[in-house]
Amino acid sequence: MLKQPSGFYFLNKNNIFTLLNLNLNLTNMKNLYLKTLLIVIFVYFTTGISFSQTSFNDYKRASFKTVDIFGRKEDTLRKEFAGKGLQWPAKYVYIRSFKYDAQLEVWVKNDFKEQYRLFKTYKVCMQSGTMGPKRFQGDYQVPEGFYYINEFNPNSNYHLSLGLNYPNASDRILSDSLRPGGEIYIHGSCVSVGCIPLTDDQIEELYIIASYAKANGQDFIPVHVFPVKYSVKKSLEYLNTTTKKNLQLQQFALQLREAFDKFEEKKQLPVVLVNKKGQYVFD
Asked: CATH assignment of 64-282?
């Protein structure tokens, strides 16, 4: 089975403060030199820490653009969370999208053991391709499967964007080995070929929510992309009709449904693994 990366670790700057405090009473030239050196080290590392936190907090303070977005949106989001009995900001975020239904759901919680609760459902502006996974560059397909956010881009050509780690472990086995495609995003501007587009207003909200989860330690924010919402009769009928003559696509859709059903039952994410054949298996 293939496993996810382990995550990121930050330098604890409190250790540097301790070093400075231990040297406050030094008086001779040698000790003065040491104090100066410690201050230089302190500035160097805290600057590095600030850069890391800014990166993982989605460049919140990196530009006038993001300062403006957080300033305009955060208070409204805080009130919306409170109105639904949710704690702001969310420490854990789960995103799932449904191609045929053109929906993107945002689920949140603040304790690992809690069940996820639905915060909001956004309308996906437009779709490209058909039912089924993305398998090669230029097929105009929106990927289907299990991904996580691997990039925050405040300077996107599509207002703001959140990158998905396509191709994932399964895609690398089953997709074209030379040209599987890439650069799949959830983004704004309401236009796209092969991505998941939202309005600028919607991507601003999602960007802020995901930023705080990332800053609070959720290194891998899951994004599950399904062909349809399996609990909707009309959507399921459409999937059955379009995959009727394609056994391989039927089997793939059933793999994804297993994860959908597990989440619907417990409102907790199943552990997703990939076997040597590129098939998804769940724990």
From this structure: 2.40.440.10
